[in-house]
Each structure stands twice: as structure tokens, then as C-alpha cells.
Amino acid sequence: MSASEPAVHPVVDPDHREYVRIDCYVRSNVPAAVSDQIRALVDRLWSLREHGCIDDVQVSRWPPQRLLTTEAGSTRGDLVTEFEQWANRHGYSLEPGFRRRENPPAPFVVDTERREQIRVPLVALAFYEDDDADALRGVVPCTERSATGDERTYTVDGWLTAAETRAFDEPIRASQTDQPPLMERQ
Prior knowledge:
The structure is a single chain. This protein is an alpha+beta fold. It has one domain (22-185). It has 4 helices and 9 strands. The strands form 3 sheets. The protein has a 4-stranded mixed sheet with strand order 2-1-6-7. The protein has a 3-stranded antiparallel sheet with strand order 3-8-9. The radius of gyration is 17 Å and the shape is globular. The chain starts with 19 loop residues before the first strand and ends with a helix. Residues 1-6 and 174-186 have low confidence and may be disordered.
């Protein structure tokens, strides 16, 4: 693979034809310019779906940090833990896109419990197979770790570009003025 050729995450290769569902998680409360970029990225996913490259797409906002009620549901931490377990089993890291950080208790506050904060990327893709929520096949963005210390980071834009190139012989992005990598740096 040349340096200019987009890297396809080997676990979620678009040429692999089993049932593939992509859950796309996006941040809410982002500036309008970033929101437009996210919308364009989601449109690219839908285009791949319409062309039969993926079987299903679900777009959701990231779950909350903590549940405020006793209602059933998962938190952001639950979801990221699932992603981390997949990454650890398969030799990947979720950094730099995902980060956990412990916040010290606030001064002058009675609650002395340290709280963990989870930073998530603006957009992430979770790949599932067999229409089974437990069949997580991959997560993007992620970084492949190797025994030699080399690392390769797979991005959402990179995966989409590679999938579009394989499906349509060229990416859907109209020009280099589109800047999805900006989203993944934040």
C-alpha cells in the first residue's frame, strides 16, 4: 500500500461481505462548521449503504457520561469500555481519539469522589456483524499496535475514503477543501 493510498482497517475491510452494520456516534453541541462536516460524513455513510457496501447504518449521539435516572440504558463509559475490550483483544488502542482522565474532586465541595471523564471523538464508527449487538468487529478511529513499536492510526475519514475508492473507484468527497481530518483532531 502506498503512502497516498487510504488505509482500510483490516478488521472492517469493506470487501469482506458478511452482514455489516455501522453504528455512527456523533457529538452534540458542536459549532455549525463542524456540524456541517459531520453531516457530510454521515451522508457518505448513507451513500455506501445505498450502494450496498454496508447493510445498515445507525446514527446516534454519544450516550451521556452518567445516567441521571434509574432508567435502563448505557452510558458513554459502558460503550467506550466495550470498544476498549475489543481493542485490547485485537492489538489496537483507541488513543488518541478516545481518552480517559480522572478529575479531582472540586474544592469546597462535600462530595470527595473522584470522577472519571471520557473524551470521545467527534465521530466514531462501530462495526457489527450478523445483526448482533454483541458481534463488535471493529472501531474507528483506532491505532494498530505492533511488536516493533510501529503504530498506524485508522481514521473515520480514512476508512470512508478507502471504502468509497473500492466501491466507486474514487472517494465521494468533491475536493480537498473538505476537511474531515479536522474533526478527528478535536
